[in-house]
Amino acid sequence: MIRTLISFVSLIILSTSYSALAKTKVTWSMESNADRDPIMIEKLQNAYNNSQGNYELVIEFEDNETRLTSMRTAMIGGMGPDIVETPGPSYVKEYHAAGMLENLDSYAAEFGWKDKMIPWAYSSGVFEGSLYAIPKTHESMVMLYNKTLFEENNWKVPTTLEELEDVAGKIKAKGMNVFSYGSDGWQPTHEHLVGIYLNNYAGPQAVYEAIIGEREWTDPVFVEALELLKKHMVDEGYWSGSLENYYAIGWDDFHAQFANRGAAMMTIGTWTFQATQLGIGASDDEWGWAPLPSLSSQSPDPNFMIAIGTTMSVNANGKNKDGAIDVLNWIMSNKDKVLDIAKDFEFGEMVVPLTLSSSDIPTDIAPQVQDYLSEYARITGEGNYGYCTWTFWPADPGVHIWKDMEVVWAGDISVEDFLYDHQKMWDKARKNGDTLPVPLRN
Amino acid sequence: MKIFFNKSFVAWYFVFPVAFIHLFVIGIPSLASLALCLTDWRGLGEINYIGFENFIELFDDRYLKKAIINNVIWTIAFLTVPVGIALTCAYLLTGIKRGQMFFRLAFFFPYMLASVINCQIWKYLFHPIHGLGGFFERIGWEFLAVSPFTTKSTSLFAVAFVDGWHFWGFLVVIYLTGMYQVDNHLYEAADIEGATKFQKFRYITLPMIRPVFVFSIMIIIIWSVPVFDYVYILTGGGPAYSSEVIANYMYSQAFERFDVGYSSAIGTLMFFYVMIIVAMFGLFRRAGWDI
Question: Which of A98, A396, A410 sits opposite B44 (nearest CB)?
């Protein structure tokens, strides 16, 4: 009898102490990447878990396409991860409309998130007046160039259309491609180029007006912008030599092409900084970056297109909403930790849009990246920012802008017809309430 | 009670588990999908009934029409090229006594490879830098330097070629199996009559393997409708929808544009198309065709 009693009491003590020690799990479904995952485990998952005793963050990595489908299926079934990671606001919009995301207003107010974030980035997660998503990474488009090659040939880094076309002629005369880029493996690459031409030819103000419905996409300024893109892509073969080569070349190829002087420049997003540093950065050549050239008098000043790469939200049906909020707040409150993660990716990933001062920028990253971060903050701080299509376009026109651009480049339809269809899609999206948050211009 | 132990009833006990799983995995989702074609569902959230709006939009969709035409071209291409080559090779193989197994394995090998591997092989072969493209450019044959997957006029045929390359070995095996069933006496009689090899093929082999042959035609027609993986991996339906097929277009509508209702309407069309083909073959069989 005494033995049974002792066993029973021991069992109670053990289970009580276990539950005291055990942490509640917080799950996060994250896009997998062989290079990135170990850093995320060490500097995000483990760092968070070691910082407190209540929750255990578990990051589940999966290929993005599979992850998005399985996460969506789980969430329809009232389950899914506690922290919902999406590739951008158009996905957040869908989840929000379905009532699957937690309203973060009270937490944002309690923890002062709004003051910690860049204003435009904060507003990108506001749907129907309430906060539903926080950007995990924000990004922009830049022009990279082979600095050594430019210096050897006395070429000037282009800042205007005339300068671009002039240097392009000289680069081609040397038997090189003007820009290294391609869409194999990621067809939406086209939208990077479309965005550049819309913002740097028509100008961010015109794009903003079209996004909010005060200007039609059929406006001549957009027609001219896309005609110029078509000329550079199809007639001039600026990207990888020809339209066909542009379609055939993927991520590794265009980085290799840039690194081995197959091309003198590259138009790409800032997510590439790490790959660039590992590619051309490891060669004898030095690389530089510049804002994308102004392509018309309607866009005279350099601007940076703003974009959200990934977002973080809390699953309204999650098992551990408090834990998910705690993880988000840890990210928002530990600027040094977040910068330490971003540093490992040369600020190409996990660039949470926290407000930074110049002293926050790490000094042990590539000098080009340091320079970019300062310039980006200065220029966007002055209000000179444009709009990336994957952040501000609703789903249907967002697909149309890249998928059907091929039809224009193939000469099957005119730019005018393309933009007429595009306007119809925007009208439909606006009517259905599918448009996405856009920061007000100064 | 006795009826439950009746011989014909017992068979149902064996069928039941599979039928039960099919009901939940295929039957109910298929019916749900059919129902979704009358809605504006975007994959998440509320579902609104919109009648035949998706179908009205569908008949006005120029890219769907393009995809349907491409599917028809694809079907014709598969009914001719792989079938012709497979029939010829299978017939020639029947005449080989030594090393036949090697050829059978060699022809069948691509069929055993995953589609993504087959696609990567051909993608790299035609790659403008790493593949034959670079070689042709160096020797000055620039018209061959461009990847056929990235040219509007060739992309569909290039993808069909890769899929056909992987598929024809399978046809060889089934035709060969059919040819081995043919009574050898018929060939001996033909030899006595002085028939040529072609005449034996035309008047003995082909009629005798008709059930296998018609079966292969039927599966080619049916399998050509949901063709997806090779198109998705090699071209994504591009450039400029030149290699777009119905299944890839349906995928794009559902998972890129979040228009699940519209995508279901496309799926419904595909379903009825396949049903019509199956019904046609059923009618032919009823009419006494030996298939």
Answer: A98
What are the pLDDT digits (tens) for B56-111?
A: 999 999 999 999 999 999 999 999 999 999 999 999 998 888 888 898 889 999 99
Helix pair angle (B155-180, B100-112), 10° resolution: 140
Locus of tokens 């994250």:
A30
Mean of pLDDT values over A177-202: 95
CB contacts of B236 in chain A (<8 Å) are 187
Q: If you measure CA to CA, which chain B residue comes closest to A429?
A: B257
Domain boundaries, chain B: 57-286
The distance of A15 to chain B (nearest Cα, Å) reads: 41
Task: State whether residue B240 sits within 8 Å of chain A by CB.
Answer: yes
Helix (H) or strand (E) holding A203: none
B242 to chain A, any CB pair closer than 8 A? The answer is yes
Q: Report residue A223 as tokens.
A: 């027609």
Q: Do B43 and A72 touch (CB under 8 A)?
A: yes
Q: For residue range B256-270, list pLDDT tens digits in order.
A: 888 999 999 999 999
Query: Is residue A162 within a helix (H) or strand (E), and if so which, with residue range?
Result: helix A161-173
Are the C-beta atoms of A323 and A26 separated by less than 8 Å? yes
Helix or strand holding residue B134 (H, E)? helix B132-138
Closest chain A CA to residue B143: A244
Which residue from B minimizes the CA distance to A243? B150
* Length of chain A measured in residues: 442
Reported as a pLDDT band with limits 50, 70 and 90, residue A8 is: low
- Cβ-Cβ contacts under 8 Å, A187 against chain B: 236, 238
Give the nearest partner residue to B239 out of A69, A98, A406, using CB atoms: A406
Contacts of B242 in chain A (CB under 8 A): 410
Q: Is the pLDDT of residue A180 over 50?
A: yes
Residues B57-286: name the CATH superfamily: MetI-like (1.10.3720.10)
DSSP string over A385-413: EEE-HHHHS-HHHHHHHHHTHHHHHTTSS
pLDDT reading at A13 higher than 80: no
Q: Does B91 touch chain A (CB under 8 A)?
A: no
Q: What is the pLDDT of residue B23?
A: 92
Question: What per-residue confidence (pLDDT) applies to A237?
Answer: 96
Q: What is the largest CA-CA distance in chain B?
A: 83
pLDDT digits (tens, 9 = 90+) for A192-205: 999 999 999 999 99
In 3D, which of A66, A342, A90 has the Cα closest to residue A191?
A90
DSSP code of A156? Answer: P
> Are residues A155 and A171 in contact, defined by beta-carbon separation less than 8 angstroms?
yes
User: For every residue of A46-101, which 3-state class applies, written as one string?
Assistant: HHHHHHCCCEEEEEEEECHHHHHHHHHHHHHCCCCCCEEEECCHHHHHHHHHCCCE
Residue-averaged pLDDT of chain A: 92
Residues 6+ apart with CB under 8 A from B21: none
Joined together, the tokens standing for residue B149 give 């997957």
C-alpha to C-alpha distance for A156 and B58, rounded to whole angstroms: 51
Task: Please give the C-alpha separations between residue A99 and each of A95, A147, A153, A430, B90, in angstroms, as whole numbers.
Answer: 6, 50, 58, 20, 59
- DSSP classification of residue A146: E
CA–CA distance, A57 with A69 (Å, rounded to integer): 22
* Cis amide bond preceding B239, omega within 30: yes
Mean pLDDT of A175-179: 96
**Structural domains for chain A:** 19-138+309-361 (3.40.190.10), 141-305+384-431 (3.40.190.10)
Residue A156 contacts by C-beta under 8 Å, 6 or more apart in sequence?
Answer: A150, A163, A167
In the structure, what pLDDT confidence band is assigned to residue A1 with cuts at 50, 70 and 90? low
